[in-house]
Amino acid sequence: MVNPQMVMYEEEFNQIQAVVDRLVREANAKVVFIVDKNGQLIAASGEVENIDTTSLASLTAGNIAATGGIAKLLRENEFATQFHEGEKANIHIQLVGNRVILVVIFDSKSSLGLVRLRVRKASDELNRIFEALLSKVAEPGSDSPFAEITDEDIDNLFND
Amino acid sequence: MSFINYMAREINCKIVYYGPGLCGKTTNLQFIYERTNPDAKGKMISLATETERTLFFDFLPLSLGEIRGFKTRFHLYTVPGQVFYDASRKLILKGVDGVIFVADSQVERLEANQESVDNLRTNLAEQGYSLEKIPYVIQYNKRDLPNALPVEELRAVINPQGVPDFEANARSGMGVFETLKAVSKLVLNELRRGG
Fold first, then answer.
1. Among A101, A106, B79, B174, which residue's CB has the most CB atoms within a 10 Å radius?
2. Alpha-carbon span B140 to B162, nearest angstrom
3. Which CATH class for the B3-192 domain?
């Protein structure tokens, strides 16, 4: 298939959300979120109310894509980890299973060492969940909910 | 690559505006941003140089409404048009669901258009996509300019395969939403077929 779909089901979503929620607590983070490599936000936790997570997701994916491009030029496989240190906020970006991106935003209440440690553990769990999810999506019978839509449904979207 | 989220009952699709430098890709997005209801759009992000040339990409998230209980969201991206930013263009095409090629109608940009279409084809092929299969529409922009070529001449060079095409003037907004609608419909049709 030229254009495989990323699909998220309730069961895996809940598992992912649990990992992300726990990571916020255990790493003393402000915000944790997971983005797929194309910039789609998958899950978020922490103080997300004041953050534009959609923009962050797209920029993080752009960042990872650019870094991946640099890695390729240097004949590296990937630079799986990135860390940006600001005056108040720091951001730790981790590529998980070369498929999704785990982002942790933290301040002086936490430390890079703690974040790294917790991210490593969370990455392993996330990797397992996403692998299970992918095999589920690959199973026959996991049809698109859009298989039944009509031309009228599509036209209705554009009627305003 | 669309993303179907059963939990949030959302479907996300990625549309990329492609075309030669200064053809009006960013202007398309700016017009859409200005004319869209605030609750249907997110922030527009432009990663541009100091001279306002696109450096990496522009990004605009849009919500179109619901289909069968699923919110449809489109993420619109532009690529940097300047020839030497090819590495960035390749990155932005990753996971694309639909492409809008924005052509510059001016006679002196015909060759740049042709080169850009060829570049699009090559870069899509690198990702395992083909221009013949992916949802793809063409916009002939800058129709208002006195040196704009007749559409037939542009079509013969840029659109030999006869994909849906539209005349536009992105500054005034003419044709902007028509082009977006056309590619969105193709993308949704592709989803219906389980693409």
1. B79
2. 13
3. alpha beta
Pairing of strands A31-36, A100-106: antiparallel
For B147, the token pair is 């040196």
Q: What is the DSSP letter of B40?
A: G
The residue range of the domain holding A50 is: 10-157
Instruction: pLDDT band for A2, please (50, 70, 90 cuts).
Output: very low
- CB neighbours of B71 closer than 8 A, spacing ≥ 6? B8, B9, B10, B11, B63, B65
Counting one residue from chain A and one from chain B, the pairs whose CB atoms sit within 8 A come to: 138
Is residue B64 within a helix (H) or strand (E), and if so which, with residue range? strand B54-67
For A8, list phi and psi in degrees, rounded to 5: -125, 125
- For residue B192, the model assigns a pLDDT of 84
Judged by a CB distance cut-off of 8 A, whether residue A71 touches chain B is no
- Closest by CA to A123, choosing from A101, A142, A138, is A101
Q: Which whole number is the average pLDDT over B70-79? A: 95
Q: Does A4 touch chain B (CB under 8 A)?
A: yes
Residues of chain A contacting residue B186, judged by C-beta atoms under 8 Å apart: none
- Considering only CA atoms, which of B136, B59, B34 is closest in space to residue A40? B59
CB atoms inside a 10 Å sphere around CB B68: 13
In a domain, A4, yes or no: no
Predicted-complex ipTM score: 0.84
| CA B173 – CA B167 distance, rounded (Å) | 11
Q: In degrees rounded to 5, what are phi and psi of residue B179?
A: -65, -45
